[in-house]
Amino acid sequence: MKGAKAANLLPGQGTVALMGRLVREHIRHYFAHIGLALVFMVLTAGATAALAYLMKPIIDDVFVEKDRAMLFIIAFSVFGVFVLKGCATYGQAVLMNYVGQRIIADLQLRMFAHLMRLDLAFFHGTSTGQLVSRFTNDLALVRGAAADLLVSAGKDLLTLVFLMAVMFSRDWMLAAVSFFVFPLAILPIVKIGRRMRKVSASTQAEMAHFTSLLGETFQGARHVRAYGMEAYETGRAKRMIDAIFRLLYKAGRVRGAAHPIMETLGGVAIAVVILYGGWRVIEGGQTAGDFLSFVTALLLAYEPMKKLANLNAGLQTGLAAAERVFAILDVEPEIGDKAGAGAIEVTGGAIEFKDVTFAYGPDNPALKGITLSVPAGKRVALVGHSGGGKSTILNLIPRFYDVGGGSVTIDGADVRDVTLASLRANIALVSQEISLFNDTVRANIAYGKPGCAEADVIAAARNAAAHDFITDLAEGYDTVAGEHGVKLSGGERQRVAIARAMAKDAPILLLDEATSALDAHSERAVQAGLNRLMEGRTTLVIAHRLSTVIGADLIYVIEDGTVIESGTHAELLAKGGAYAALYELQFAKEAPADEAARARA
Question: Rounded to two decimals, what is the model's pTM?
């Protein structure tokens, strides 16, 4: 599956195929633990069967024959059996819990590492709620499916086998009659499992939507209150919660349908045993001990039989979740290292776009034969109306997307022919949408350069005009920035981002609307940091405020995916074309504010 098609994450797979994949890719790594757990399961099953087996000597030797010696032997035997069963059950439970939790941890790590490799197109086409739901709800259900399979296929099946052995040893004909009715339950139980898988898949999809709603609403709590939309959001949540409730209620009804089937068949089996076995005891064909031992084994077998009957319903619920998890793992990134790709060696950092085309979809062309140059060590600006293709041009350089046609080169090397790691190691990005992590300010600055020394972090902060405000924070560089940097102002977040780019010290710098959201005071501080950051680096700047790119060595005007003008600020003004019109429009808007600022000064 390709990254661009990631929205459809529910491919259909059969039960056997899914179980085989789960065993092959994850469960098999813990066969040693499962093998030891199986030993404990055998002991548990044997102990359960032993209790049924001991019913014959208890009745015949103790109560009928009144054998005092056997009284003590059997009493201590029963005690020993219970101790053995308790210890074995504990050992099996601990081992299977370990296996189940490790499978979840392995799947979570595997899925997270896989997501880190996927393209931006995947994340743009998949909601955060869906991904979070995979890590929480779905993986918990996968653990349940793995545990149910291993425990029921192990302990319950072994217990049933041992108890059947006791029953056949007491009366093979009666045992055959008892178990004849249970195959009748197979067909309805299979149908119940199929319905459970469908209902479970729908439930998990609704849970993913609900998780998305929670994330959006909590993150946008300020806007919800500002627009008075509390009731509207509560209504949306109510509709989703009610939908989830209906699905869970339906799942409960479907799962519960197995109980009346098993209870009815169990009643038939026990009634037959009482009639036939009681008649044989009355006629002298078997002893009361034989009969009671048989009935005890039958009653003890009833519980594992019910669990095995319900196994399919629970298993299908977990497999529906496993299907969704594997659907994520099956998405392959479209952008990666080609065979034989080597590390790029950036000497000057000159960037060339040669007849580049790109489209976000068959009906959504973004670039139409772009050709432009960013000379080594120079500052080049892209300007134009929103939606013209400026950000797309910038995104093609670090290969967030790949060109549809043409080529992008750095120092003559096609970016598709070098490794992604080496390419991105030579590029620093500062954008309008600052991504700070819920970590210390120090960690956020050093983010692009693991192992960055303290002195380098402080030097980067000084050059970004951020050191002074950082030292004024409650815990200085150890202050936690909060989720998305919420504990810092817009200007402070931007300066931390510039410091991060400073610390990375990459030869190529990409600036995407780095100051457009700031007030005049913050912009001056940030712009001073940017000017220091751009020194000696090949810089590509996207800006709507033309005042920030007047000093650029070269300016390209981008319109509808094409270059319509290029030159210096003075040259473009002299042409009187699109750039001059943009400049006049912005100057007319900004002039009154500039006059007011000068008057206040």
Answer: 0.74
